[in-house]
Each structure stands twice: as C-alpha cells, then as structure tokens.
C-alpha cells in the first residue's frame, strides 16, 4: 500500500539540522564573555534566524523545485542587482562593502544568497544542455561552457570588488563540482586547470618580482589579499595564535561551556569552531565531525537516488559548497588553511548565511519528499 502523504521530510537530514542549531546556540552562549557588547543578543538573534530558516525551508519545499527553476533568471537578476547596488550604496564595514545595513534588523549579505542562486541557475542550464544534447560534440560543450562562464563571471566580479575573495572561490568551486557531475569531457577540466595555473603563476611571479609593480597593476586591495593568503603558513598573527592556544589547551573534554581562557576576534563567525573546540575538547570535536560527515553523506546518497537531473545537480552544488566551507573553516582555525573569512555552515552566527543554507535545505527537502512520497 502506498503512502500518499503530501509532504514527507527525511528525518536523517532534519535531525542533524536540529543538532546543528543546538550546537550553534550553545557555542554562541558559551562565547558571550569574549564577544563585543554589540552582540549581547546574539543567541536570541540566532534563535530567530533558525526559526525563520526552518519556516523558509518548509515554504520552499511546499513551492517545489520546479517552480524555483522557472524563476531562476528572475532570482539571478535580483541577486546581481543587489550586488551592484551594494557597491554603489553599501556602507563599508571593516573596509568592505559586503553588507546592507537594515535598522533594527541587522545586516544582509547578498553574496550568501548569490551562492544558492548560482546553484539553481547552473542546475537548470546543465540539465537543459544534457537533455538537448545527449551526446554533445566538443564544440557544443565549448559553447555551453562559455555560457556558464558568463553566468558565473558577472557575480564573481561584483563580489570580488566588495572585496570578498572567499565567496568568489565558492562560486567557482560550486560551478566546477556541478560541471564535473554533469558528465562533460574531463579534458575541459585539464584545460581550465592549466589556464588557472598559468594565471596564478603570472600573478605570483609579478608579486615576488616587484611589489610596487603588482600594486600598480592589480591595486593595493588585491595585494593585501594575496599577501594574507601567502602568509598563512607562517602561523603568525594574534587571531590564529590564540585560536591554536585555545584549542590545544582544551584537552579531551574541554574547558566547559562558559569558560573562554583566551580571547580572539570573530569568535561568533569565522572562529566559532575554535570556541566549540575550547568548550568541548577532543571528544566534542570528534562528535561534531561525525555529525557533519553523516549529514554530508546523506546528501550525497540523496543525489544518487534521485532521477531528476536538475535536482541531482542542485545537491552536487550544495554538497560542494558545504564540504569546502567545512574544511576551509575548521582548517584555518588549526593553521592548516589560509584565513579567508569563510564561516562554518549552520554553526557560525549570521542571518544571511543561515537563511541561505536553509533555502538550500528547502530544496533538498523537496527532493527527498519526491523520493519518500510514494513508498511501499
């Protein structure tokens, strides 16, 4: 007998999300002693963002992914317009125009939503290409890749100018993962890799030959970003040193929920994993890593099960985005990765990032609902 309930949610995806919410709120509560006075209500605000996020995920699931795909270009236009408006009218915060400030609400970061919009647009374009050209020629793939490149290029340039290099890397990574899953010829990845290596080689060559020439060509802002990336391996700097000391001193069980022996900036966002590690120690970190791995594997399994190409590519983009941010964020707190300002999904404080992830989860729930709706 078939179950014809209209909406069914995969509990093995929902339950980890609930645990992420609990971990996020507990970590932010425990970090209150090292947060600025402007973040006194951080736990309450994060709670509200999570409530709004689950509501948003439910609404997206009820709307359905097909309706979202039909609105893909409208969403893209809105996202690009928001990024452009940000460069024109946005107020600089820490020398970057990454956020709109809304009175009594907080800040909105358009680039966070642009990540999800690119996943939607790319999924629609890739699935349509595969349907139109089941056995594409090299020329057909080339023209298709040019189209994808143009779609990604516009928001990438606008986001780079904010400046926010970290999110630009996520845009590119999302696109590469989705293209890889799409089944296009692998030679394009070797060609692209060669072009990127060549470009990086030229940039680094100019950087090492003459810093003045580099600044004249690329500007001071880009010089500082490259300098910061290249200096990460030295494991120097107040923030990283204190993060390493905080994690290293936590031991097996940590210092406790409200004990913060060492201060470091951005404890609620970029370095939230260091705070969690300090509170719970090696045991807590192990359990969190297991939860994250379980969650990611469930998403991958869902992508394998679905027969809808667009939905498969959506999950590929989401998984690529999440795994990169997880590895990058946790790695930089240990000095294993450069500090790029990438947050830890579902754990770090932030309304824009959390709502964007829950928007993505709404699409995931819509896909799982299609798989679970009619079962024996």
Short description:
By secondary structure, the chain is an all-alpha fold. It is built from 14 helices and 2 strands. Helix 5 packs antiparallel against helix 6, helix 5 runs parallel beside helix 14 and helix 6 runs antiparallel to helix 7.
Describe the structure.
The chain is mainly α and 376 residues long. It has two domains: 11-192 and 232-372, no CATH class; 193-230, no CATH class. Helices cover 70% and strands 2% of the residues. The chain is built from 14 helices and two strands, in the order ααααββαααααααααα. A two-stranded antiparallel sheet has the order 1-2. β1 (100-102) and β2 (106-108) form a beta hairpin. α5 packs antiparallel against α6, α6 (138-160) packs antiparallel against α7 (165-182) and α12 (272-305) runs antiparallel to α13 (309-333). The longest helix has 34 residues, at 272-305.
What's the topology here?
Layout: H1 11-30, H2 42-63, H3 65-70, H4 72-89, E1 100-102, E2 106-108, H5 110-132, H6 138-160, H7 165-182, H8 187-209, H9 211-218, H10 220-230, H11 238-248, H12 272-305, H13 309-333, H14 351-372
Helix pairs in contact: 1-2, 1-12, 2-14, 4-5, 4-6, 5-6, 5-7, 5-13, 5-14, 6-7, 7-13, 8-9, 9-10, 11-12, 12-13, 13-14
């Amino acid at each position: 007998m078939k179950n014809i309930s209209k909406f069914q949610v995969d509990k093995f995806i929902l339950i980890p999300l609930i645990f992420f919410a609990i971990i996020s709120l507990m970590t932010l509560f425990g970090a209150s002693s090292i947060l600025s006075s402007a973040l006194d209500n951080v736990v309450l605000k994060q709670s509200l963002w999570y409530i709004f996020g689950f509501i948003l995920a439910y609404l997206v699931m009820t709307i359905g992914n097909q309706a979202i795909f039909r609105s893909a270009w409208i969403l893209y236009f809105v996202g690009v317009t928001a990024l452009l408006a940000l460069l024109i009218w946005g107020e600089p915060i820490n020398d970057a125009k990454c956020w709109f400030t809304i009175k009594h609400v907080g800040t909105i970061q358009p680039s966070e939503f642009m990540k999800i919009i690119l996943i939607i647009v790319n999924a629609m374009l890739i699935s349509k290409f595969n349907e139109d050209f089941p056995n594409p020629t090299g020329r057909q793939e080339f023209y298709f890749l040019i189209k994808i490149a143009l779609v990604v290029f516009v928001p990438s340039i606008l986001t780079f100018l904010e400046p926010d290099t970290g999110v630009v890397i996520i845009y590119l990574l999302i696109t590469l993962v989705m293209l890889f899953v799409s089944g296009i010829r692998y030679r394009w990845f070797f060609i692209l890799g060669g072009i990127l290596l060549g470009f990086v080689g030229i940039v680094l060559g100019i950087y090492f030959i003459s810093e003045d020439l580099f600044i004249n060509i690329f500007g001071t802002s880009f010089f500082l970003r490259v300098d910061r990336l290249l200096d990460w391996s030295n494991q120097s700097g107040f923030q990283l040193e204190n993060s390493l000391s905080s994690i290293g001193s936590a031991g097996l069980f940590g210092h406790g929920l409200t004990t913060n022996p060492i201060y470091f900036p951005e404890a609620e966002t970029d370095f939230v994993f260091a705070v969690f590690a300090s509170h719970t120690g090696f045991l807590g970190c192990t359990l969190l890593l297991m939860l994250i791995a379980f969650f990611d594997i469930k998403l991958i399994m869902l992508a394998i099960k679905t027969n809808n190409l667009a939905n498969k590519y959506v999950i590929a983009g989401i998984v690529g985005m999440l795994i990169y941010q997880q590895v990058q964020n946790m790695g930089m707190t240990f000095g294993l990765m450069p500090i790029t300002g990438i947050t830890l999904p579902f754990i770090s404080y932030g309304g824009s990032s959390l709502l964007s992830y829950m928007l993505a989860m709404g699409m995931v729930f819509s896909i799982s609902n299609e798989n679970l709706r009619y079962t024996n």
